[in-house]
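Would you be willing to look carefully at the protein I have copied below?

:::
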Amino acid sequence: MSNMPPLGRVDDAPPPFRRAVESLRATAVRPEISVEAMPAPKRLAPHAVALSARVGGEEDDIALGRLIVLYDPEGTRGWPGPFRAVAYVSAEVEPEIAADPLLGQVAWSWLTDALESCGAEHRALSGTVTRATTEGFAAKADEPVSTELELRASWSPEGDDLSGHMAAWCALLSAASGLPPADVADITARRGPGSD
């Protein structure tokens, strides 16, 4: 179930950051989610690692995401702890779902529920949920209206075992893309002829 890429060289980083990166690597990832290492921002913290993910559909991506883990052992960033996780998830949603005034609250609950269910202890959670509608005009008038949901959040993980935080980010991606929970089997794949 894990398809984690190498996350870059961290041999010269402090031991807590190395342990954190190793815990990210060790986290199982659903086969529907493709994860890749990406360049980490250099100015946000002395040490950082970044991942990108996509949940693929038949023709294109259903959801996209990024997870950045920042580490400042000197505590100069003002976070309540040396680590800060920054997460981003984007997914297209159906127009009737996009029109629901509670969509923002529901999407935020995907994150808070994922953090809780994955045992990702944290402090100072903050973030936003945005929905953007795209309409085509003139030469693009025939393109269907689409609505995209974006969730951006950050929090300070407790400790250097970030496996729960990685699992929570994957659970958030799964919820945003409409995947069933990982422990629920897809019974449609097992149905044979005449089993209606």
